[in-house]
Write a structure and sequence with these properties.
The complex is a heterodimer of chains A (281) and B (150). Chain A is an alpha+beta fold and 281 residues long. Chain A folds into 2 domains: 105 residues, Ubiquitin-like (UB roll); 129 residues, Alpha-helical ferredoxin (Fumarate Reductase Iron-sulfur Protein, Chain B, domain 2). Chain A is 34% helix and 15% strand. Chain A contains 10 helices and 7 strands. Chain A has a 5-stranded mixed sheet. Chain A has a two-stranded antiparallel ribbon with strand order 6-7. The chains are: A alpha+beta (281), B mainly alpha (150). At the A-B interface, strand 6, helix 8 and helix 9 of A face strand 1 and helix 1 of B.
């Protein structure tokens, strides 16, 4: 026996809205321009669904970046009615407007229509060395960490690199070289991690002209973050760490390594042999 | 690949519409900072006129109080007072919170994701700034217009 679940009103066209989408084709246009499309809206329809409706039924040349359609990948971040949001997480009916204005993320270079070039985001992210740095021997087991130590950085691990924060940031709007909220939050995420020893290595990037001191705590990054990461908090806490370092010095105490595990030790030996072999070649 | 620059530019500093209170405070802080900076330059120029003798000085004072025949002086001074009070107290708040003080500890984000860094003590400091601005503003404006110190 099959059970049919019927959601009341789901799938019915409720109203028609106008999508005003910023278009730019590098092969045809010198400057971006706006095009309008009429989209029938059903209950549960997101802005991304609306964009895909336009692409399928009205104008196939419209370009947008998307992937998971459920707020995990962060690909579809764009400016919807003046605010940075994930298109797949924004219900058209919740916006409660007859005109939906869609712009690509700001403060990035533009590739086409709603597709920004996120190289700046990824390069800045890389520049803060977003990984655990240790200056001791390779581990023979996991680094031990208490649950309360994990809570110090847990929220900042939720970042999906959608890039919405850089678009909302007013400092980023005027300073191309600024690291931006995403990279600075990730720098704090690793510095606050009890397993990490890389504070000194990251210091020259963070404590620079375009580093952590450029933030003016406008809070826009935290307001638009679709995962509630609160990068503004991370940046201010990071400043606190840097201030502490300036006056009293800041030392990271490395987390201890757990009980030696034979599989890890054997794996390390295999890895070392492979490295030696490749060096010989 | 042909890319075009899509930077929002410094003009976007003054467009906090759609964002929250802190973004508005940022815009206002910038605006009052520029206004106070321009005032300081004008103030140095104004006071340097004292070297040109009492007549020039008195004429300038009358002109600044009654520019183009309209009694705008007290209004300009009132706006300046409010700008200085806001910029000063908001600056003190920023000095505290921008060094990681009086902020919440990292927390687990819960839907609908309201950033706690903008709330708590930080919100308390914002409210305090507003109260001080209103109190000092009233005292100052009454003094500017009547010469009476409350």
């Amino acid at each position: 026996m099959t059970v049919q679940v019927i959601l009341k009103g789901f799938g019915e066209v409720v109203k028609e809205v106008t999508f005003r989408v910023r278009r730019y084709d590098p092969e045809k246009d010198n400057t971006p321009k706006y095009s309008e499309y009429k989209v029938p809206v059903k209950k549960g329809m997101t802005v991304l669904d609306g964009i895909l409706y336009i692409k399928e039924h009205i104008d196939p040349s419209l370009s947008a970046r998307y992937s998971c359609r459920m707020g995990i990948c962060g690909s579809c971040a764009m400016i919807i009615n003046g605010k940075e949001r994930l298109a797949c997480q924004t219900q058209i009916l919740e916006l409660n407007k007859d005109l939906i204005k869609v712009d690509p993320l700001g403060n990035y270079n533009l590739i086409k229509d709603l597709v920004p070039d996120l190289s700046k985001l990824f390069n800045n992210h890389k520049s803060v060395k977003p990984y655990i740095i240790r200056n001791d021997n390779p581990p023979t087991a996991e680094y031990l960490q208490k649950p309360e130590e994990r809570e110090k950085y847990a929220m900042f691990t939720e970042c999906i690199l959608c890039g919405a924060c850089l678009s909302a940031c007013p400092t980023m709007a005027a300073d191309d070289l600024y690291l931006g909220p995403q990279a600075l939050a990730q720098a704090y995420r690793y510095i606050a991690d009890s397993r990490d020893m890389g504070f000194e290595e990251r210091l020259n990037v963070l404590d620079s002209k375009h580093g952590v001191w450029r933030c003016h705590f406008a809070g826009a990054c935290s307001e638009v973050c679709p995962k509630g990461v609160d990068p503004a908090l991370a940046i201010q806490l990071l400043r606190g760490v840097l201030m502490k370092n300036s006056f009293f010095g800041y030392k990271q105490v490395p987390a201890p390594v757990g009980k030696e595990r034979p599989t890890v030790v054997e794996g390390l030996k295999v890895l070392e042999e492979k490295i030696k072999e490749s060096e010989k070649k | 690949m042909m890319l075009i620059d899509n930077k929002k530019g410094w003009i976007s500093w003054f467009n906090p519409i759609k964002y929250g209170m802190d973004r508005w405070l940022f815009a206002l802080h910038r605006l009052t900072g520029i206004f106070i900076g321009l005032y300081l330059i004008a103030h140095i120029f104004e006071t340097s006129n004292i070297l040109k003798g009492p007549l020039t000085w008195n004429n300038l004072m009358v002109f600044l109080d009654w520019p183009f025949g309209v009694h705008l002086g007290p209004y300009i001074l009132s706006i300046l007072l409010l700008a200085v009070v806001f910029h000063g107290f908001n600056g003190l708040r920023l000095t505290i919170v921008e060094n990681g003080l009086m902020l919440t500890k990292p927390y687990r984000p819960d839907y609908p994701y309201e950033p706690k860094s903008l709330k708590g003590w930080n919100l308390g400091l914002k409210i305090l700034t507003a109260i001080l601005m209103i109190v000092i503003g009233i005292i100052g404006i009454v003094y500017i217009f009547t010469g009476v110190l409350l």
